């Protein structure tokens, strides 16, 4: 077929193809029923009911995930305005309150638990698989969580405790003044752009205006603790004297405190803090004085990793083996 014959064949094709005017009877016949018949109506009657059942199920499941179990350990705590006799459920938005003679235990989803001590007020803020969050308005809680880091949070008037897989006690008053004591793992406490890392066996003062203070080990001598607290309370620009007191009293075991101090002193004092820290716990390979004083993240993280490793060994082997606080090596 040449080009002209092909064109003639195309021209002879119909301009449009119309279906029969009414295909519905044939479709009905194939379906085996007539539109509007009782059997047809009964078949479609269940569709909205099934959809409603699914919706109800999803709403119930969501409500269950948005509530945590609570057990009364002493007295009769309040959930909202209702007294808790033995056990109950704490829903998102609910407040749990204990008086001077009551205590309660909150199951933090499936990852841990929080004991609420007397004279405390706690709210469930978020209850999702990806985020578990409480707000401690005042009082004291003991938290124990076994989960991946940054899954459990506790808000306070002065900042937020971020769980890194640990156990800790957190207390605060209604203004935000409080104390964090970590007994396992590590907690990060954050207020705005300021944060402190608090590993096991350390404490940290919390202040309403400044948030996290400088952490210190739980067996630190009282004069050293007073010097750290004094530094936290000093106004920026008048901390030189407090800084010198902390450095003079510091031991190798206090390297965690000096690591935090380095990042909070005025620039002219950083060299002095670094030199004292390096004399107590030598920096790891690759961490230089210049980079650390400049607060380069790689240098700070490298130094922190060494300090944390030594501290962890000392805490775990406390009373079993004597560990050199400068190196983390067991003494003969």
**What's the main sheet like?**
18 strands, mixed
Strand content: 25-35%
- Note the gap between the termini: 102 Å
Task: State the helix count.
Answer: 9
Helix content: 25-40%
Mean pLDDT: 86
Secondary-structure arrangement, i.e. CATH architecture of the largest domain: Sandwich
Annotation, overall tally of beta strands: 18
Describe the global form: elongated
- Pairing-aware structural class of the strands and helices? alpha+beta
| Rg value | 33 Å
Overall CATH class of the largest domain = Mainly Beta
Unreliable stretches: 44-64
Structure, described:
- This protein is α+β, with helices and mostly antiparallel strands and about 325 residues long.
- The chain has two domains: about 140 residues, Jelly Rolls (Sandwich); about 120 residues, no CATH class.
- It is built from nine helices and 18 strands.
- Strand 14 and strand 15 form a beta hairpin.
- Helix 4 packs antiparallel against helix 5 and helix 6 packs antiparallel against helix 7.
- About 5% of the residues have low confidence.
Q: Which key terms come to mind for this protein?
A:
332 residues; alpha+beta; Jelly Rolls; 2 domains; 18-stranded mixed sheet; 9 helices; 30% strand; elongated
Overview in brief:
With 332 residues, the chain is an alpha+beta fold. It has helices at 3-11, 24-31, 38-65, 222-233, 240-249, 255-262, 267-280, 289-293, 297-316, and strands at residues 67-74, 78-79, 82-83, 87-91, 95-97, 103-108, 112-116, 121-128, 131-145, 152-156, 159-163, 167-172, 178-184, 186-191, 194-199, 202-207, 211-212, 216-217. The protein starts with a helix and ends in a 16-residue tail after the last helix.
């Amino acid at each position: 077929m040449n080009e002209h014959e092909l064109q003639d064949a195309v021209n002879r094709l119909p301009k449009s193809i119309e279906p029969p005017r009414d295909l519905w009877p044939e479709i009905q016949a194939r379906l085996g029923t007539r539109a509007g018949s009782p059997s047809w109506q009964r078949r479609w009657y269940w569709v909205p009911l099934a959809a409603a059942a699914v919706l109800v199920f999803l709403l119930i499941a969501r409500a269950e995930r948005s509530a945590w179990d609570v057990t009364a350990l002493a007295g009769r705590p309040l959930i909202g305005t209702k007294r808790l006799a033995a056990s109950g459920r704490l829903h998102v938005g609910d407040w749990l309150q204990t008086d001077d003679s009551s205590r309660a235990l909150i199951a933090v989803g499936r990852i841990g638990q929080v004991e609420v001590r007397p004279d405390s007020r706690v709210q469930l803020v978020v209850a999702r698989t990806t985020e578990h969050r409480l707000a401690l308005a005042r009082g004291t809680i003991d938290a124990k969580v076994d989960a991946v880091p940054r899954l459990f949070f506790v808000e306070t008037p002065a900042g937020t405790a971020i769980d890194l897989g640990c156990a800790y006690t957190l207390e605060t008053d209604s203004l935000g003044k409080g104390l964090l004591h970590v007994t396992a793992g590590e907690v990060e406490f954050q207020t705005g752009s300021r944060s402190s890392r608090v590993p096991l066996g350390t404490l940290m003062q919390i202040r309403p205006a400044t948030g996290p203070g400088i952490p210190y080990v739980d067996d630190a001598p009282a004069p050293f603790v007073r010097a750290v607290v004094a530094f936290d309370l000093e106004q920026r620009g008048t901390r030189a004297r407090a800084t010198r007191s902390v450095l003079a009293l510091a031991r190798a075991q206090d390297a965690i405190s000096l690591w935090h101090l380095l990042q909070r002193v005025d620039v002219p004092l950083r060299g002095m803090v670094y030199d004292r820290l390096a004399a107590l716990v030598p920096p790891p390979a690759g961490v230089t004085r210049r980079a650390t004083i400049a607060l380069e993240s790689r240098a700070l993280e490298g130094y922190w990793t060494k300090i944390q490793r030594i501290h962890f060994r000392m805490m775990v082997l406390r009373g079993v083996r004597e560990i050199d606080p400068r190196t983390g090596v067991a003494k003969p």
